Amino acid sequence: MEELKSKEEFDRVISENKSLVLFAFYTETSRKSVEALNVLGEFDKANENILVYSINATEVRDIHPVFGINSVPAVLVFSGGKKVNVIYGLQNRDYYENLLSEASHSTSDSSRKVNRVVVYTSDGCPWCARAKEYLRKIRVPFREINVSRKPSEAERLVKKTGQMGTPQIDINGNFVVGFDKPKIDRFLGIREN
Fold first, then answer.
1. What is the DSSP-derived secondary structure letter of residue 180?
2. What is the pLDDT of residues 128-174, one digit of tens each?
3. Domains of the chain, start order
4. pLDDT category, 112, cuts 50, 70, 90?
5. Secondary structure of 102-153 in the HEC alphabet?
6. Sheet architecture: strand order including 21-26
C-alpha cells in the first residue's frame, strides 16, 4: 500500500485511474487506524487489481475536509473517478472483499442501486449481531455506529426515530427498528423468491 503525501498526488491518482480506488485516512495516534492499515494492507496484497493508498490525516490536511471526513480510520472509495462511498471505523478484510464484489456487480449491471446503510448498535446486543451478520451474508456494505460508546449519536438517533432500542438500521434514510428481515429486504429492494 503506497502512502500519498500531498493533494497533488491524490488528484493525480484519481485522474489516472477510473477503476476502484481506496484511500485509507489514518493517524499514528489512533490504535484503530493502525489496525485498519494492517487489514487494508492484507486486502491490498490479496487484490493486486485494486489500488489502495494510505493518507496520514495529520500530515496531509487538505484532502479529508473536502469529503467531509472528520474521524479516522476512514476509507474513501472512488470508482470511475468519482467518490462513491466513505467507510468509517475498523472493518475486517471480509468487509472489503464484499465491497469489491459489490463494485464488480455494479460495473457489470449499471442499473443496480448502491444503498447507504448505517447500523446503530449497542454493547451486548444479540439482535445487533444478527442484523450485521445478515447484511454481511447478503453482501451489503454498512457503517456501524455503537451508540453505547457515542452518547451524542444515541441522542441524535432518538430525535430521528423516537426509539431507544437497538439495532436500528438506516437504509437510505428509511429506518428499521430491530432485526426485521422483511423490512430490511424491502428497503434494500430485495425481492423474495
1. -
2. 999 999 998 888 888 899 999 999 999 999 999 999 999 999 998 89
3. 2-108 (3.40.30.10), 117-188 (3.40.30.10)
4. very low
5. HHHHHHHCCCCCCCCEEEEECCCCHHHHHHHHHHHHCCCCCEEEECCCCHHH
6. 2-3, 51-56, 21-26, 74-79, 82-88
